[in-house]
Amino acid sequence: MAQPTLNQSVGYGIVLGLGALFALGMILVTFILKRYNRELQTSEMFNTAGRTVKSGLVGSAVVSSWTWAATLLQSSGVCYRYGVSGPFWYASGATVQILLFATLAIELKRRAPNAHTFLEVIKARYGTFTHIVFMVFGLVTNILVSLMLIVGGSATVSALTGMHTIAAIYLLPVGVVAYTVFGGLKATILTDWVHTFILLIIIIVFALTTYASSDILGSPSAVYDALTEAAKRHPVEGNKDGSYLTMQSREGAIFFVINIVGNFGTVFLDNGYYNKAIAASPVHALPGYILGGLSWFAIPWLTATTMGLAALALESSPTFPTYPDRMPDADVSAGLVLPYAAVALLGKGGAAATLLIVFMAVTSATSAELIATSSIFTYDLYRTYFNPEASGKRLIYMSHVLVIGYAIFISTFSVGLWYAGISLGYLYVMMGVIISSAVLPATLTLIWKGQNKWAASLSPILGLACALIAWLVTAKKECGDLGVACTGSNNPMLAGNVVALLSPCIFIPIFTLVFGLDKYDWKSMLEIRKGDDHDLATDAGVDLEDVPGGHEETQIEFEEEQRKLERAGKISKITTVVMTIALLVLWPMPMYGSGYIFSKKFFTGWVVVGIIWIFCSFFGVGLFPIYEGRQTLKNTFKFVLKDITGKTHPKTIHAQEAAVEKSGEATPPEKTGIKEEVTAS
Fold this sequence. Notes:
With 681 residues, the chain is mainly α. It has helices at residues 8-36, 43-48, 55-66, 69-82, 85-111, 118-126, 128-161, 165-213, 220-233, 250-268, 271-279, 285-314, 329-333, 337-346, 348-386, 392-420, 424-435, 439-447, 453-479, 484-487, 490-502, 504-515, 523-526, 534-540, 555-586, 588-594, 600-628, 630-644, 650-663. One of its GO terms (molecular function) is urea transmembrane transporter activity. The chain crosses the membrane at residues 12-33, 53-73, 88-108, 129-151, 163-182, 194-212, 253-274, 286-314, 334-362, 395-420, 426-447, 454-474, 494-517, 571-590, 602-627.
């Protein structure tokens, strides 16, 4: 491994200093929202952000949650291995899940408007046994994702600064825990926007440096020539003519299948994505997920097309950290292609920028995992089985304890993996084997009334067993042992991932034939109740109805919301299917089938499209949230200024707002508890 480019002090400074800065910033934002926007940190606000988040912030939160360390590091690694096909397979194979999940997000809000986790929906429909099965799969998903974040991030920090890996493992989550405990999901979503904003700017800098301003490369033409020479020195086995400039890559296509299968599990079973859907206001869930999915596509595609190809182009240059040798495979698997390329391009500035974006990716996604996991333990375990009448204050306390406890657990687990030699790359391709058998049953829970309890309960368990057998038997047959190198290779992982995702297609029909079709009426999902936060409101001296997210919905409001969600559901099904076909079939397959090797002009166009797309992403999830929340920002700044200058006290502002709101009401509509039955579609 190459020598660290930066001093250890830089590593500690960013990990601790920047972590503390974000924590203090989010604590300040939480204070401002409470003082001037009447926000109270109730159990509902902590876990659902009041269910009022708009599409711009939903989009940036989706982008941030889906931008793991792996998004930047692993995508650059597959580009280094397979050429231009790698970034596209990574991006398209992980974007379609977000787009398709938009439909599931709409169905969740329509079927279970008061849910805090998707597991509450499982419990409401099938009962305890199925709930426990899916709770295990859900928690394993969160654990695997968290491990990938911490393991990948700590390896990069260590490689760039020389900071001890174990120190990085334990210190990376510290700042995240602080602002998550203080601000809950709302703080997480706001921090997601800040992280996404900074991340996109750095990616744009990398792209423009590589393809426009660098003295070493500086144009698509120079990169193209360097890749042509690289293919002559070390042609890629399985690629058309050994070229790095073709979509026809055998190993790249295998990775694509592994990638798309594994990512179905980490979206459809990760409670973090359901959290975002729950946090979104009804009219903003669909546009938020579509905006987030399309904006995210450019991040791995352009990052890897820039840094992965730059590594290939520059590894014969003295500026490259491993010169004169090629990168060892262990370094590629550890996710070090991007940092090495950044160092070769920009020296210490590139190393610092890489450290910053990896820190952003790790901490923002980790905060989502902390909330996702704590909400499962709080609502699906504690409130469901131990204390059904838990007060809002008690639920908040449990959420805080679980956030801290989970961070300690995941850091300790990561240390064990580090000693065992398990890298980011291994975890990334292995996750689908473990979790993907629960994807189809979980999806059908919300969209098909005919799935019975036993099909939902047993299909994931049997699918996991079949996947493990396929994975390990293939590994044993391929290379005769079950070591990390063999079990982590493409063919065994391909077998395990595909069997995991598709085996329920066999088991669900069998259990449906044996136990019969269910005739679920969707009523029990509507009976999921919110947390009781009246004790917190009483202690704060406010009316819960006046707190954002505390309003109890009326029957008229509920029916109007259902109409909007039903319309959004129809739009989402058409939109997401069309975009999925475009990204998986219409765009890549003709180039794969023809074996086309990019010309210099085509490669230039390919790069230009990527750069235009990343700028669109920046406007969509970087600037649009500011525009969308301009009125709230304007009012908040105005209230802060009046408070600082002593002109108006916040209590006076709140009293004036309440008077205006009440003056527009005649007879308040009658409130109802459980809503009327929603007709099954």
